[in-house]
């Protein structure tokens, strides 16, 4: 196993032209991501507070569902994360601290 990867044991799925569990989960994830994006746009264009609150509620539901589906897929081993190098993390922290200093300057 690569020490720079964070992953779970992969759940094997059937191969071939028939859809499998991973295919269905990818489809659901894609739809939920797209719905979240669309609700985000709707939030910025809501004409009144009541409508905004309704859109926000729906956005939160779909965002949570999207995250839940991703978490299931990660546990199934269908997603692999790469560990960030400490130097890159440190560099990013330094850059953000400098930007904050510049903003407050």
Brief description of this entry?
This protein is mainly alpha-helical and 105 residues long. It has helices spanning 21-45, 49-75, 86-104, and strands at 5-6, 81-82. A two-stranded antiparallel sheet has the order 1-2.
What labels describe this entry?
105 residues, 2 strands, two-stranded antiparallel ribbon, flat, mainly alpha
Write structural notes for this entry.
- The protein is mainly alpha-helical and 105 residues long.
- The chain has one domain.
- Helix content is 68%, strand content 4%.
- It has three helices and two strands.
- The protein has a two-stranded antiparallel sheet.
- The N and C termini lie far apart (46 Å).
